[in-house]
Predict the structure.
Amino acid sequence: MKARVDKNVCIGCQMCVQICPDVFQMNDEGIAVVLVDTINVKYENLCKEAQEMCPVMAIALFSDGEA
Ligand code: F3S
């Protein structure tokens, strides 16, 4: 699984960082960025939770085969 944050949508609420800091981190502009290319399986459920909890739905999750 891979994750992407749409930087034009993220409002910097940091929910994703609190839920899964091993995958999401805030950058200097207060926007979440994805730290890893491929998400470790053990963090997949946390990433799904982060996606659901993001108030503006800025997080996209997709399987490794997708762009
Ligand atoms: Fe941004 Fe959503 Fe995370 S608003 S900081 S991507 S929870």
In short: DSSP finds two helices and four strands in the chain. The radius of gyration is 11 Å. The longest strand covers residues 2-5. The longest helix spans residues 44-53.
